[in-house]
Amino acid sequence: MTRFMLGILGFAALSLAEEASASAKNMPAALWDQLNVIWLALSVVIYLIVAVPSLIFMIKYRYKQGEREFGDQEHEGHWGLEALWTIVPLIIVIYLATHGFAIFKEMRTVPKDALEIKVTAFMWGWEFEYPNGKKVYAFFKQDKDPIKGYTAQEFEKPVLPVGKPIKVSLTSKDVIHAFYLRPAKVTQDAVPGRITYVWFQVNEEGEYWVFCREYCGTWHSRMFAKIKFVPEAEFNQWLGGQAELDKSHRTSQLEHTNIYATKGGALQ
Amino acid sequence: MREAIHVEKPWFAASLKEWIFTTDHKKIGILYGVTSLIFFLVGGIMALGMRVELFNPGTQHVSPDTYNYFLTVHGALMLLWWAIGIWGAFANFLIPLMIGARDVAFPRLNALGYWTFFAASVIALITLIPGNHIMQMWTGYPPYSANPNSGVTALFVFIWHLTGAASIMGAINFLTTVVRMRAPGIGFFNMNLFLHGISSMNLIQLLGVPSIAGAVTMLFLDTYLGTNFFNPAKGGDPVLYQNLFWFYSHPAVYVMVLPAFGVISEIVSTFARKPIFGYKSMVIAIWAIALVGFIVWTHHMFVSGIPDWVKIFMSYTTVLIGVPTGIKIFNWVGTLYRGAVLYKTPMLYALGAILMFLIGGLTGIPLGLPAFDVAVHDSYFVVGHFHYVLGMAVTLAAFGGFFYWWPKVTGRMYPEGLGKLSFWVIIIGSNVLYFPQLIVGLSGMPRRYYDYPVLGDWVTMHQIQTVGAFILAFGVLLGIIALIKGAISGEKAPANPWMGNSLEWRLPSPPPPHNFDETPKVEKDYCPHGYCKF
Fold it and tell me: Are residues A160 and A100 in the same domain?
């Protein structure tokens, strides 16, 4: 059973390593990947250090009638060994915490040239506000079907430039939500009455998931957004497209109001 | 004052009236055990309901509100009734037997504690009635929990108040009993590790529960009486609740796991038929975990907007907990060395608990590093981690404890083959259920999701989990059948079937109502762990 578990652990390590190389360029995912590899390697080694001797002792020292019916009553401890397995783990965890500290500091330092946007969370959707006042709303869908339930229409997709650091200032209109951008591997709570921040950089074009990660009620699981990452020129064009903006803005505002009305009192 | 009446009947032959009015620690222990097990099964059935819904993406069988209700109650029942409540059963039954006492220090307070716990159970059942659902999760974070969308907040608050009150009554009682009522010769450094586990657990309960009681009281006032402790619009702060909540609820994790460590230590040394390896470092490790456990709580709040320096400070204290925990694991392995390992059902459960707890611990370390946590906070990785700790280490230890002390409790042996089979089914089912949670969590799946998009291997991973959940449920069923079958038709158990050296094995099985005929005298070099020399 233990060997089976180790097999799965090794398999998981391999599949994660593959995934890590694909997202290596994104920030702060790249930093996270470094720490993940260290942790995974240490964990597998520590598991083996404990499990292998355990299995050997379990087999070698098993009860045998007439031959080995009770254990060595004098074998009650060994100060040297006990000190060893206090000090070595102590060094390992202090190392991990310190390495994690250094990485965390980098994760929390926003690059100077970051584009700043505001994101306001509400039950159950996201409002993205750009520096020029342009807003995009992403809403939950109540559809029974998983494909339709997780489909976003074009006007609901916020657009961001690839290869550029982006700082998001986060808050919430009602209850606590959490902003999680999947390829960036970063989470931050959106707390009413507070402004929190998170920064990331995505280097490959595409549509990426944002999920709410703090439980927030009936449709928590459908509180998603799909962010389109496009080249900077295309982003600037989109940002300036005022006529398009007004239309989409109105539509989504209307839907927003409808949802509030039908949910009646779902909000404070 | 009534005169003491000599009673010859064993505990299970009592009338209904005796069960209700009893102040006997053994009967109250049984009451705790039965209540905990029933609610464990209810929580398990709710988990199966959720797993069936998650088998496919989209909405199939239950509505999101029902799912959220199941999830809330599953969390509350598994933590408060099972992982904490079950130790009330073990503590009640075993503490007086292990220290050579007639009963606990305050028998009537003990009965009041149980019936308060029972009142909480009634409230938990009331939430089953449609319209009374609670949907704020077991954490009940405001402002959401003060929002009508979250269901009946009052019931949520009363569940915490009543279980909390029961916990404090139990804590005072057990601590006083262990400190004041030990037979001569049993001291701090030669009492059972189970007693250390239970005492440290109850010290945490005593110091921590007032914090959560205050938090939910403020939540109650905010929701119904218009105060604004957690309302940011009027100058309150929702993060305050999280601080108060986790100040108790993180140490509460050690409330659940420290007694499990105690049970594992008892079982491993008995079935390795030798003293526990490194007894003193085991004792120091237990108390170190209990104390350091109080300064790690913000690792639940690494992404909630608290200052970064607090995250770093609590990151160091969190990973530090890994050191005493590691000591315990290494010492258990050391106990096997040069032993005579006898594979009975309780030993299988204990060894399974150790090897699975190790996975729970190793996945817990990175969660203490804010740089790692940001990617997996509130993801299935966290769910997998705490199910390895609570769903496996604690649950396997509790089942190991059931089988280990079953002959003492009922006076009859359980069926060995069925017991072993239940272990293998449970451990296979649990791993099939919980390991994919770690994988799907690392790939970003958020927790507390009623539905999920078709993304990567999420669908397959959820389907594997659902299969695992049913295997696990079948294993639990087998285990309970084995216990019931043993109690009804098992062979008569000898006083000391495992040749343990602890005091409870020197009593007949089941113990007489008054426990010891006279205060037991232990030998000069009494060591509760090891092979019985008599």
Answer: no
Contact of A200 with chain B, judged by CB distance below 8 Å, is answered with no
Q: Cα(A268)–Cα(B226) distance, rounded to whole angstroms?
A: 13
> Residue A265: is its pLDDT beyond 50?
no
Q: What is the CA radius of gyration of chain B?
A: 23
Assess contact for B425 and B481: CB atoms under 8 A: no
Residues A28 and A152 in one domain: no
B17-45 residues labelled b (16+ CB within 10 A) or e (exposed): eeeeebbbbbbbbbbbbebbbebbbbbbe
Write out the residue range of the structural domain in which residue A21 sits: 2-59+82-108
Which ipTM was obtained for this model? 0.90
Question: Residue B390 is encoded by which pair of tokens?
Answer: 């609570």
pLDDT by residue (tens digit) across A61-103?
A: 999 888 888 888 888 888 999 999 999 999 999 999 999 999 9
Q: How confident is the model at residue A267 (pLDDT cuts 50, 70, 90)?
A: very low
Max Cα–Cα distance, chain A, nearest Å: 91
Query: Is the same domain home to A18 and A140?
Result: no
Q: Is residue A77 part of a domain?
A: no
Helix B279-292 with B238-272: angle, nearest 10 deg: 170
User: Is the domain of A137 the same as that of A244?
Assistant: yes
- CB distance B274–A150 less than 8 Å? no
Q: Inter-chain contact B141–A150, Cβ cutoff 8 Å?
A: no
Task: Tell which A residues from 61 to 90 touch B, by Cβ distance under 8 Å.
Answer: 61-64, 68-73, 75-78, 81-82, 85-86, 89-90
Let me know: does A76 contact B275? Beta carbons within 8 Å.
yes
Predicted confidence at residue A248, as pLDDT, reads 56
Q: What is the pTM of this model?
A: 0.92
> pLDDT digits over A191-225, tens only?
999 999 999 999 999 999 999 999 999 999 999 99
Residue A227 lies in a domain: yes
On whether residue A209 sits in a domain, the answer given is yes
- For residue A65, tell me if it sits in a domain: no
**Which domains are assigned to chain B?**
19-506 (1.20.210.10)
